[in-house]
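Q: I'm building a small set of examples for a reading group on sequence design. Run inverse folding on the following structure and report the sequence directly after it, with nothing in between.
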């Protein structure tokens, strides 16, 4: 697609009155709800992103205050400012909040703001899903962080190692608050990942092929995919953790065949990619601002994309370097040490590309570039100490000392926090129309830069001198009082720098409006006007360059005059364009979600499930679960797969596309597929647990009363029924697509019966075998796999029944069949889950 082939301008676009009418319709459609409460029901991604960002920033400030209290306690030897128990709560909550309530949510929040504008889209494809994610994050974050005020905060470290945390006599309610509260927050993270992946793949403007995407979009795509494979293993570990605490199933109890190392594996399969999940989005900000201040295209575009993908890939092969001291085989140590050192290569490629771009360009000095330069310097120091701890013999000496604390904070502050401040000063005019103060920003930077190094550089020395992590005091004889006092002084200095930035933010509303595109950037997000409209971009542009504002003639003027695509809200609906994954050809006009209370109500109901379970109020938790299901069905019934009033719509320049698509061309199909990938990854964590226990036991399953396996009969019956339900669903999709609606409905009924029967047959094996999950880890893991599959079968039945009801209500036809196509994707994964579960527990290793 080229500019020449689409240069035809509709006659009415030359009439200013017509263009004014189009803008008025857009403004009316996208205006926020009135009233203070109803504004919170808006699902415009720009506003949700702002709320998300402010909330994550607030949690960061709170976690920083907790860190200051800890540093005050450690300023001098034998201090008694706080007790040991309070100190444990402080460092656990500090680490948990910084990782789960700030670093990951902040990147998701910023992406929700920037991506639609970077992609020239009116919004991301599922704005209500973003709203649900925000409310889940807010409620879960308040629940977890507020526990410190009731002396109920978790105290087992942000990693919560068993068995100290799984034994209820050694850990209080805080462990449940940590596990269930953060599990709820993980739901919002996965929801955001789904939104971002589909947004990048399907909402790009016409012409923006994959090799023309802004690098920020590439980074966010890579990181969102990482979330799909990093967070679910932790969710699997959370399931095992809570089942041990609540039901006494001994997954981590060595006396009954369990092993605490399983938790470490599942946690660090999440925990090390997590470092890169929070690092890569910050590097993405560099990829946007460095070309702007170099005033040239970024050098090495293909190399930096490959480096980002390579960093993500290698990051999943590093988790064992957190476990070098656990007694693993030396061949494992060698492999993971090599991988830990190899990840420095793609990271170095990205850093050198940025330096080369600045070297080749005409650099404009600025406050954002100052923060970026300082963060690269800090991150490189952290990376060098990371290579040191990647060497197993050195790690044996430095493990669990303050050397590791120093390394971690150099990486996270240099790779996450300072880049976010760079992005804050760079993008503040885009979000608010006001620039922050360059003078105040520079003062804040130097105070933070000096304070950060004064805080954490001495920790390298105190760690090498023998100061262990996670101690609330230390004897004077250790000789590290001076180093700790310096670290404490530095922490207050760093906090002062952050406070100055907060003052700068507070003063910004008083400042005059900044000019449009004040940095003279070349990417799409800077099409925004200082007095930005709620509907964002005036018309969806045709893209021929990575920097269209710089390279495409009269580009900004054409966008502003509505001379590209979808310049109007003709039917008074919120709309955007869906394009193909590879070459961004328009395939659909999507009708976007409008302001609604449903995402908020669903999040509140789901929060009840987690919070009430924390306090063992199981009946009320079940009631909340039913309410959640009702909210979800209400949301889906009234807000998705709407049959349009006409089949197609003109988007401009003689192009006409459908208003409705189903299957792989539809964003809903992609959302289901991506969600099920995350679900399958969590399931693989449970299967990993089964075979982990098999590898550490000579007799697995063990012999004894209540320990015999479920046999072959019931698992094979359950598998046959699962596959029957799957085949019936596929058959329903195919005959329905050909116009035989009655046969499709009949096959859905068959699928419902078969899938529901598979649920009971899957549980019958362990039930009739008398497997007691409290006796040994083998029956516990068998029951867990069976229950997981049964729950998914129940969800499959609900989906089949929902689709049948949609058909009977006339909301699904052979042409408009997205519901049926989407649930078929779910049943593909259900069939795979059934095959793995029932073959594993029935055939391997299997005791009849």
């Amino acid at each position: 697609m080229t500019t020449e082939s689409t240069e035809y301008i509709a006659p009415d676009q030359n009439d200013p009155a017509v263009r004014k009418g189009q803008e008025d319709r857009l403004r009316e459609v996208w205006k926020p709800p009135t009233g203070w409460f109803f504004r919170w029901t808006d699902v415009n991604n720009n506003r949700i992103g702002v709320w998300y960002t402010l909330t994550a920033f607030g949690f960061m400030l709170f976690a920083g205050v907790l860190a200051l209290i800890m540093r005050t306690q450690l300023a001098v030897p034998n201090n008694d400012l706080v007790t040991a128990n309070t100190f444990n709560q402080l460092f656990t909550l500090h680490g948990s909040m910084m990782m789960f309530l700030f670093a990951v949510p902040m990147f998701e929040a910023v992406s929700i703001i920037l991506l639609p504008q970077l992609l020239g889209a009116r919004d991301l494809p599922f704005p209500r899903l973003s709203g649900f994610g925000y409310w889940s994050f807010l409620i879960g974050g308040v629940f977890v962080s507020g526990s410190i005020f009731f002396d109920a905060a978790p105290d087992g470290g942000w990693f919560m190692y068993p068995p100290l945390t799984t034994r209820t006599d050694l850990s209080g309610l805080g462990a449940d608050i940590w596990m269930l509260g953060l599990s709820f927050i993980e739901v919002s993270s996965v929801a955001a990942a789904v939104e971002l992946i589909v947004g990048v793949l399907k909402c790009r403007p016409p012409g923006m092929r994959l090799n023309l995407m802004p690098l920020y979009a590439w980074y966010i795509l890579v990181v969102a995919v990482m979330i799909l494979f990093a967070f679910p293993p932790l969710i699997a570990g959370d399931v095992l953790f809570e089942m041990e605490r609540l039901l006494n199933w001994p997954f981590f109890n060595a006396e009954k065949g369990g092993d605490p190392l399983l938790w470490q594996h599942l946690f660090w399969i999440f925990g090390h990619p997590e470092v890169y999940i929070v690092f890569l989005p910050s590097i993405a900000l560099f990829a946007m601002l460095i070309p702007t201040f170099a005033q040239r295209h970024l050098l090495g575009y293909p190399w930096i994309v490959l480096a980002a993908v390579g960093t993500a890939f290698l990051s999943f092969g590093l988790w064992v370097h957190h476990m070098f001291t656990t007694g693993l085989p030396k061949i494992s140590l060698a492999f993971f040490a090599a991988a830990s050192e190899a990840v420095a290569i793609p990271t170095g490629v990205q850093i050198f590309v940025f330096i080369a771009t600045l070297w080749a360009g005409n650099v404009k000095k600025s406050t954002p570039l100052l923060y970026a330069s300082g963060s690269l310097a800090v991150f490189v120091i952290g990376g060098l100490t990371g290579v040191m701890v990647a060497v197993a013999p050195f790690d044996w000496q430095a493990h669990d000392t303050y050397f590791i604390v120093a390394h971690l904070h150099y990486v996270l502050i240099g790779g996450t926090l300072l880049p976010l401040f760079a992005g804050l000063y760079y993008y503040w005019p885009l979000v608010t129309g006001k620039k922050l103060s360059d003078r105040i920003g520079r003062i804040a930077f130097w105070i933070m830069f000096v304070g950060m190094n004064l805080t954490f550089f001495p920790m390298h020395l105190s760690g090498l001198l023998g100061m262990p992590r996670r101690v609330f005091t230390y004897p004077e004889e250790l000789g590290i009082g001076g180093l700790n006092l310096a670290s404490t002084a530095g922490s207050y200095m760093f906090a002062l720098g952050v406070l100055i930035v907060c003052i700068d933010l507070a003063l910004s509303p008083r400042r005059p409006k900044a000019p449009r595109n004040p940095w003279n950037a070349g990417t799409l997000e800077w099409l925004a006007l200082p007095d930005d409209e709620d509907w964002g971009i005036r018309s969806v542009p045709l893209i021929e360059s990575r920097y269209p504002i710089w390279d495409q003639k009269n580009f900004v003027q054409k966008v502003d005059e509505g001379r590209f695509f979808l310049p109007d809200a003709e039917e008074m609906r919120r709309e955007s364009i869906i394009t193909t994954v590879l070459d961004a050809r328009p395939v659909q006009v999507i009708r976007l979600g409008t302001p609604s209370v449903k995402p908020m109500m669903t999040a509140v109901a789901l929060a009840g499930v987690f919070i009430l379970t924390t306090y063992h109020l199981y009946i009320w938790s079940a009631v909340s679960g039913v309410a959640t299901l009702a909210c979800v069905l209400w949301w889906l019934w009234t807000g998705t797969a709407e049959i349009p009033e006409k089949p197609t719509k003109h988007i401009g320049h003689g192009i006409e596309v459908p208003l409705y698509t189903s299957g792989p061309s539809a964003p809903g199909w992609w959302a289901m597929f991506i969600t099920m990938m995350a679900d399958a990854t969590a399931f693989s964590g449970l299967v990993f647990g089964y075979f982990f226990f098999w590898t550490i036991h000579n007799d697995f399953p063990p012999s004894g009363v209540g320990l015999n396996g479920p046999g072959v009969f019931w698992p094979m019956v359950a598998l046959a029924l699962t596959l029957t339900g799957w085949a019936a669903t596929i058959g329903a999709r195919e005959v329905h697509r050909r116009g035989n609606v009655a046969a499709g409905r009949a096959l859905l009924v068959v699928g419902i019966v078969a899938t529901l029967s598979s649920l009971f047959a899957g549980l019958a094996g362990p039930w009739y075998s008398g497997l007691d999950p409290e006796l040994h880890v083998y029956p516990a893991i068998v029951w867990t796999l069976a229950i997981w599959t049964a729950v998914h079968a129940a969800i499959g039945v609900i989906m089949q029944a929902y689709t049948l009801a949609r058909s009977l209500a006339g909301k699904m036809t052979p042409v408009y069949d997205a519901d049926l196509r989407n649930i078929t994707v779910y049943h593909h994964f259900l069939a795979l889950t059934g095959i793995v579960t029932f073959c594993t527990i029935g055939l391997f290793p299997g005791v009849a």
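The CA atoms of residues 752 and 798 lie 8 Å apart.
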